[in-house]
């Protein structure tokens, strides 16, 4: 074993719109933080990253801006992404001049352009990577879910993140059919915010919208109705409190869920018959934080007619997938996007 290998600090990263998850070789998941950076607009200095920055969302004075440097799974603010990655990598494997530069494998949406790919590679190299490989997120999620990706068997994975829903049919270590739509967990939150604005004439922030999604969100109508009290401000700018029900939330999410179900249907229609029959027999696997919406698997199963189930710990599936193959350079080269 080489000295470099002995001090292996290779890492796999799920660079998500909502959260960044890092898997360190030999250690497993070592970091799970929101993909948010807080910047002082006067000095352009970064003042907080991750969880600390998320707590500032919607609560900052004019001089401080809390931003998400990724939107819909791709980099929209290069400098902020590089600062965020550097901070997260140092947190995960330690900084210091004697630290060997890591090999980094990053899960990215399957629909990214060449320009978007280059931005991710440059940001990772700027953050200290020795070499960078990009793996399509659905492939990484399939590996993380323990699916037999190298066998001649059709596997379907639906990875619903914050910014994108990635759907892929995988066989023999290749993506046979894929579909990437920019509708996912963030759109669910936004749909709730807009519904409350329209129905109750009330403005709420992103964090309140997310809390409602987690507490009352559902992909189907259930007999037992739950409710919660939420606070925001009315159209005159004064504080306002209303009670909303789980029925309201299901109604608000209808268009987003229909878009996801429709994208799965379209992907299946484009799948070769032999692989489609494997999927009908083996089922559809859900991964990603957005898939954790209550009863989403039941809704997909009802509408598509194929057994749908969650992989273990959907939130970390992509990071665990890229982490599992860190030392399998031949497989990395076969499935990477470069």
From TrEMBL:
Which UniProt keywords are present, listed alphabetically? Answer: ATP-binding, Cell shape, Cytoplasm, Nucleotide-binding
Residues involved in ATP binding: 17-19, 162-164, 210-213, 289-292
Q: Which residues form the signal peptide?
A: none
Has keyword Nucleotide-binding?
yes
Subcellular location, in the record's words? Cytoplasm
Its BP terms in the Gene Ontology are: cell morphogenesis; regulation of cell shape
SUPFAM superfamilies on file: Actin-like ATPase domain (SSF53067)
Q: Which domain of life is it from?
A: Bacteria
Instruction: Give the record's subunit note.
Output: Forms polymers.
Question: PANTHER family, alphabetically?
Answer: CELL SHAPE-DETERMINING PROTEIN MREB
Protein family: Belongs to the FtsA/MreB family.
- Annotated function: Forms membrane-associated dynamic filaments that are essential for cell shape determination. Acts by regulating cell wall synthesis and cell elongation, and thus cell shape. A feedback loop between cell geometry and MreB localization may maintain elongated cell shape by targeting cell wall growth to regions of negative cell wall curvature.
- The protein's name in its UniProt record: Cell shape-determining protein MreB
Q: Which gene encodes it?
A: mreB
């Amino acid at each position: 074993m080489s000295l470099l290998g002995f001090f292996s600090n290779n890492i796999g990263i799920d660079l998500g719109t909502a959260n960044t998850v890092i898997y360190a070789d030999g250690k497993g998941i070592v970091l799970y933080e929101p993909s948010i950076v807080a910047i002082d607009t006067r000095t352009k200095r970064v003042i907080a990253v991750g969880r600390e920055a998320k707590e500032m969302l919607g609560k900052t004075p004019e001089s401080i801006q809390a931003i998400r440097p990724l939107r819909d799974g791709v980099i929209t603010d290069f400098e902020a992404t590089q600062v965020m990655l550097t901070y997260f990598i140092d947190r995960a494997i330690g900084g210091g001049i004697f630290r060997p530069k890591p090999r980094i494998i990053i899960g990215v949406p399957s629909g990214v352009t060449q320009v978007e790919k280059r931005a991710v590679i440059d940001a990772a190299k700027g953050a200290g990577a020795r070499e960078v490989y990009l793996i399509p997120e659905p492939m990484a999620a399939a590996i993380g879910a323990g699916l037999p990706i190298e066998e001649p068997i059709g596997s379907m994975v639906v990875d619903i993140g914050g910014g994108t829903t990635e759907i892929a049919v995988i066989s023999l270590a290749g993506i046979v059919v894929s579909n990437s739509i920019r509708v996912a967990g963030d759109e669910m939150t936004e749909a709730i915010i807009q519904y409350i604005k329209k129905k109750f004439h009330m403005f709420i922030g992103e964090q309140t919208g997310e809390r409602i999604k987690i507490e009352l969100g559902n992909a189907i109508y259930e007999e037992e109705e739950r409710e919660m009290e939420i606070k925001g401000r009315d159209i005159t700018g004064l504080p306002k409190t209303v009670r909303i029900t789980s029925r309201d939330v299901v109604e608000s999410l209808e268009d987003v869920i229909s878009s996801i179900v429709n994208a799965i249907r379209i992907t299946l229609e484009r799948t070769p018959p032999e692989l489609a029959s494997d999927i009908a027999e083996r089922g559809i696997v859900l991964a990603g934080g957005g898939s954790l919406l209550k009863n989403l698997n039941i809704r997909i199963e009802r509408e598509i007619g194929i057994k749908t189930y969650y992989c273990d710990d959907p939130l970390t599936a992509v990071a665990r997938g890229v982490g599992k193959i860190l030392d399998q350079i031949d497989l990395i080269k076969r499935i990477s996007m470069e």
